[in-house]
Sequence to fold (543 residues):
Amino acid sequence: MTEQAQGAAALSAVIADAASEIALALRGEGDPYALSRILRQDDGLSPAAVRVLGADALAPYALDGHPGADGAGGADAAIVHSALTAFPPTGETSAVSVWSYRGLVEASRAFLAGHATSLPEPPEPEADWLASDPWPRLSHRVSQLASLALPGLALGLTDRLTERTEDLARGFVRAVRRRDWLQSAGLGRWLARMPRTPATLGLDDGLRFVRQMSDDPRVAVHVTAAQIFFGRAR
Amino acid sequence: MTMLTTAPPALLHAVGDRALTWLDAHRDYFRLTEADLARGDALVERLKPIGELAINMRMLFREGVAGSRQGARAGALLDFAWRELLDGGNVLAAHQHNEPFSPVSLEIYAVFHELGYRHPGLEAALDIPRRTATWRALEMPPSRRLGVLNAERRMGLTPSGDFAEATAATWLGRRPEPWTVHLHIAYDITHTVFHLTNWGEDPGRLPPPLADYLELYLPAWAADWAELQHWDLLGELLIVDACLPRPALDGQLWEQYATAQSGTGAMPVCGAMPEGDPSDVFDIVHHPTLVAAFASAMATSRSLSAGGA
Fold:
């Protein structure tokens, strides 16, 4: 294995472990959640892991209130801050990545209020593709933004995507057919949030099916988020 | 909202033109051998392609999109199928005599009947079996039950069952979770649509909830089977698209489909064209090639009509 591949495998493992903890916390199981307990600030991989998990790194706080009493809030904010400063969007950054960055900033403001100070101002993400992408490409990109499907977050994006509900339903069908469980779960999570998701899609059993077929902890996070926050597939 | 690019009529038309050329050049392979005629079970398998050929040629006439050369070719193929392959209907009558309670002869005869070909002996022989309770009780897949009802309707007979009930019994009629569709379900869907609309003749007979359901999810299935290069099923799904109130006639899918067609006009089932003995190759590719002719004519017609996208 090359050094680069080893690094990628190590990062994937850190992300998977963190996602397992997040899914557990969303189900109300395990110890009280604190980002700074599942990712160590002195671990060089932590900033990248937070950047990949995006707003989901703070998702459990959307469930049962914000951290603070035990001091986790300050440590959590420090980890998020290092992720935001280590991987700032540049002119080269893809639109999806800028949206995800923005989601992490929004989540910090919402869930680490009082702790997260001096957050960077996120650039305005490119948004034309939300209306112009054909449904397969739209579905692929939107599934990568599933962490933004959290209560109170990305409301403008949600409105834009609601206009494409049918296209995302097509994407969900195709993703399940292709056994792309991560894309299925990401799209299913958005569709759980949408007010006009077609009843014929059978989203609830679809999400349960995806959860059963995949052992990817990130899939578990998406399906659990759809259950806990949007009341689907319970 | 994003609009997909619609396939140009010339592209749609060319696929069918090439497919018909191949079918015409290979028509002798449809012939029944003495061995086929001697064995009932083998006969049914060999009759199926002839029925499919007839349905396709009738549809070419009906849609009126074939040029005069194509039209003449389709007419000659139909005559050939009736007179030479079916011996003026005698083959069907003999099968009816051997298997009086099988709907196969009726299913194949109905399309010739619509075209004006007649075999009074066969029609008389169908009368009593159709009166029996067994005829209505025959076990078969629900989409085929619709096919039998449609065959009766096409012949001007009182259908032996209720269309709405038969439709409700199909997979499509229940509109289940679209993400569960696999290969066999997909063919059940396409056949339900073919029988309900009489092979695309009357898209209006597709109940609106079913049309809405298909309009919503068909693009997802078609994209997936295009990626899997399953041209036979993709062709059938493209026909279903052309049967919808607002067909998509997706330019990218049609491009892929047209590219899969071999230089001779044959359409492979899946992936690339098979190689080997011409008769074996015919057995494999005649169905997807018939489908290609059908899909092309339906799509061309819809693209030229006001209802086309």
